[in-house]
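Exercise: predict the fold of this chain.
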Amino acid sequence: MRTIEQTTQEILELATKQFKVPAGSLTAEDDFYKKLGIDSLQALEMLSRLENHFRIELPDYEVQGVSDFKTLAQRIQARL
């Protein structure tokens, strides 16, 4: 079973690749809208990729209002 730290790290790595930002430039506490400069459509694309990566489904109500990687990791971890 993966830890919350592993889940968080995988999310950060996937976001780094998807949005082509320097490795290590994202942290768990970052607001991904602000840090990545993305809009809601790009955030949905990221969520879709994360769902595929972790083989889970995140209901909209669970991610509504989530804007930092740490909380996102917690929501994903709860579904694993």
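Check your answer against the key: Helices lie at 4-18, 32-36, 40-54, 60-63, 69-79.
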